[in-house]
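Appendix C reproduces, verbatim, an entry submitted by the partner laboratory led by Prof. M.T., so that reviewers can inspect both the input and the predicted structure.
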Amino acid sequence: MSNVAPTATTERAAGRSVGERRDGRTGPVQRWRYTLPGLVGALVFVCLSLSPSLLPRTGVIQGLVCGITGAIGYGVGVLVAWMWRAFANREARPTGRRSWLIFAVVAGACLLCAMALGRYWQGRIRALLGMPADGLASLVVIPLLAALVLVALVALARALRRVYRWTAYRLEQWIGPRAAHAVGWTAVVTGTLLLVTGVLLDGLVAAADAAFSVRNGTTEPGIVAPAAPERSGGPGSQVPWTSLGQQGRSFTGGGPSVEQIAAFTGGAARTPIRAYAGLESATTAEQRARAAVDDLARAGGFDRHTLVVMTATGSGWVDPGAVDSVEYMTGGDSAAVSMQYSYLPSWLSYLVDQDRAREAGRELFDAVYDRWSKLPPDRRPALVVVGESLGSFGGETAFSGEYDLRNRTAGAIFAGPPNFNTLYREFVDGREAGTPEVTPVYRDGRTVRFSTDPQTGVPPTEAPADGPRVLYIQHPSDPSVC
């Protein structure tokens, strides 16, 4: 048996690159080296990430998108190169200086062109949405943040690979090489998934909750505690004003006055009722729903003509246009109830907090319906459900389908429903053949209808109203709907 130490060639033949030891550790030079195929993949993905989106992105968001997609592209490039070498049955070859120079020139030109086009496209979208132009600072923020994110993610992937190889090396002392690599790979992947979806995700959500809870304690300018007993946080209310949160205080402290409603209707008007419970009003979603409904009953909400159950979005925001419209149309003879279920804004709740929205929508409607159903039929107010964006997701969860919505409500309006809404997908996927997804027709429009612009009529316009109606308002370019 030869006592000669293994050469770099035999190390590569054993599946290890130069600079990497058998126990999975690498030298300082190899640790920060990037392959040409990986960088080509990163370049392609970064350029693609600068293509236009349905909504404009800030410099920070675009930098994160570029960095994440670039890291994915780097991995794809490395994988494609590895597969090519496997089919060609040859080892990796060092990249020549000339190839690096050609790549540098091409990469520089492609990135400059993609950045210019991306900025132009984002400017067009901002102009269409009436948003201010993006500042010049984004030209610096995007590449710097993208580079930091890409380097960090590639380093993290390499660290996981080293852990896998170290684990396999240790296991080889007890089991065969193939089994050791399979077990090591499974252990690292499983451990990473558990860490990311468990400890890490919970920690990030807790940190985000703590950060956004600070804003929850503030009050928007011009909003003061209501002087009317018909509002939560006002005189006689069972829900303290300080517990409503920023959005709850805006909900109960805002809205049209009796004088404004009377001027609109041209007759007498009543003070609309608005009931609300914030995260600090009670501990659990069930308790908050009960607190909001108790305060609604205290204010006389079940004695009004129309009762609106509104599922909030994210941090507790309720579209003022939705509730204001009802109050104007009913001459103030209405009541609205809602509750907060998160400190996080809607887009972040959508990513990590969907369960809270689902629970809040179900608990709130069930608490209202329990009181409403016990009233004599001739004394029950018209029960309407309203939700926008993530609020429509929460509002849907209280119902099992079309007939449940029809039997337990006087109607519902869901604006901008996210594509993952269960009932929304059921209605859209079950649409009549030949009708487009943006304006589908579901079962002749007998209950559920869709519209991109209610002012032009809700199809099928030839079908008369027959009982309660459920209306989905969606814009074809809304990214949450598409």
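Confidence is low (pLDDT under 50) at residues 1-29. Additional entries are available on request from the coordinating office.
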